[in-house]
Amino acid sequence: MILLKAVEYRDGDTTLEGILGSDDGVSGKRPGVLVIHDWWGVGPYVEKRVEQLATLGYVALAADIYGKRVRPATMGEAAEFANHYKANRSLLRSRAYAGLKALKDNASVNIKSIAAIGYCFGGTAVLELARSGADVAGFVSFHGGLETPTPDDAKNIRGKVLVLHGADDPIVPSPEVLAFQDEMRKAHVDWQMIIYGGAVHSFTNPGAGHEPSTGAAYNEKADKRSWQAMKTFFQEVFENIGK
């Protein structure tokens, strides 16, 4: 049976509240997956992903970057919150680290088998977590922002990196993609990128609508293909996991 529950933890003086998912029918320690939300914060979409990961046998924690009960109500608020953390990468990294610690503190998690995934804003956060030198086996960005003010920090990346990107994403355009690839090459990171034709931003989220001309839209094929790519990536980065 999949169990989902709210988990409260802290980053300094700030109280955060994430969602923890696990299968209570699985015993022993398991790989853990940190999930970082899009610009809407912790909500139904990221909860669904946590549940899916728990169904695969992982212990998953949706990290809370914004703070307990801090949930945008409008697109304007969502953009404001996301931009605040994008402009303060040290704070963004700190919040991601707090979530990582909360995941590792779970007694069911094998702390040597940890991955981190993120969506849109969360993809940006996951890559910043990687650049900070976090002890994580693999990092996955789903249609996330790729730019960083500190590209030289890529030399700190300890795990493998998978970027899943929409070929027609106007929010993360080709120059940003090329700069990211150059950053990875210069730092000799073990990285890979899969680009989905016809996909724009937010291609995994049905809540983004179905009109690509807006720049953000759901793409069922890219959603399914990217989820499968993540599962294959996990087979590589986690030892003795038969998923």
Please describe the structure with a list of short key phrases separated by commas or semicolons.
8 strands, about 240 residues, Rossmann fold, alpha/beta
Could you explain the architecture of this structure?
The protein has helices at about 45-55, 75-85, 90-105, 120-130, 175-185, 220-235; strands at about 1-10, 15-25, 30-35, 60-65, 110-120, 140, 160-165, 190-195. The chain has a single domain (about 1-235), classed as Alpha/Beta hydrolase fold, catalytic domain (Rossmann fold, 3-Layer(aba) Sandwich), CATH 3.40.50. The relative contact order is 0.13. Helix 3 packs across helix 4 (about 120-130). It has an 8-stranded mixed beta sheet with strand order 1-2-4-3-5-6-7-8, sandwiched between helices. It is globular. Helices cover about 35% and strands about 25% of the residues. With about 240 residues, the chain is of the alpha/beta class.
Mean of the pLDDT scores? 96
Strand content: 25-35%
CATH class: Alpha Beta
Total domains, how many? 1
Radius of gyration: 16 Å
- What fraction, in percent, of the residue positions are helical? 25-40%
CATH T-level fold name: Rossmann fold
Largest sheet: 8 strands, mixed
The assigned structural class equals alpha/beta
Could you name the ranges where pLDDT drops below 50 across 5 or more consecutive residues?
none
SSE pattern, N- to C-terminal: EEEHEHHEHEEHEH
Tell me the total number of β-strands.
Answer: 8
- What is the correct CATH architecture? 3-Layer(aba) Sandwich
Overall form: globular
Biggest sheet strand line-up: 1-2-4-3-5-6-7-8
Q: What's the CATH H-level superfamily name?
A: Alpha/Beta hydrolase fold, catalytic domain
Give the terminus-to-terminus CA distance: 18 Å
What's the number of helices? 6
